[in-house]
User: What shape does this take?
Amino acid sequence: MCRNITMLRGLQPGATAEEIEAAARQYVRKVSGVTSVSAATAEPFELAVQQIAAVTTELLAALPPRKQPPPTLPPLRRIKVSKAST
Assistant: This one.
């Protein structure tokens, strides 16, 4: 699976809608092979992202809490952490 998709379960604070959508977008890019959305691929691509993000949100809400936080931060948090430390 794609190395760019990180665990969202167990984040403190919990995964944001933006982080969930970013993970869904990476997943759809990987499985579809669509790296650049065109007029022909935009509608099915965006629909898939929305559906996967919705299911992911439901999944994260239904799972019990993790005993340990994920080993790495999602990409959007890494950007925020690196900006805060500079």
Summary: Residues 42-62 form the longest helix (21 residues). The mean pLDDT is 88. The CA atoms of residues 20 and 76 lie 10 Å apart.
